[in-house]
Amino acid sequence: MTIGELTLGRYEEVLALFRRTPGVSVREADSREATARYLARNPGLSFIAEGEDGRVIGCAMCGHDGRRGYLQHVVVEAAHRGGGVAHALVTRCLDGLKELGIVKVHIDVLVTNDLANEYWARRGWQRRDDLHRYSFLNSEDANA
Fold this sequence. Notes:
alpha+beta; Aminopeptidase; 4 helices; 30% helix; globular
């Protein structure tokens, strides 16, 4: 396995990985254009893992708002789970954020995604019960 920076040139492969992974929601915010904006705004913070055949087997998208870091779409192909792929991807993201002086990082996980919720708890991430996330949709597209 090799870890490399996520570029827009790998967008279709990464999107296919998201779509075939249970528990991952793909929305309009995951469009090619939105992903291009995200990568441009957060250079050098999002990564892919490639298998020996060069196929994308994992991804971790990472960004920040200047104060806090955020992980999105930390996804590993089912056949490659348990081998440290997610750990390697997340470590690269956390190291990149730390270099920028950002040491607190959040990830949103769907309540129904048991596999992901168990993973983050095992890795020492703390589930927050002291706040509620509110979202506002400024679009007619319910899948934005």
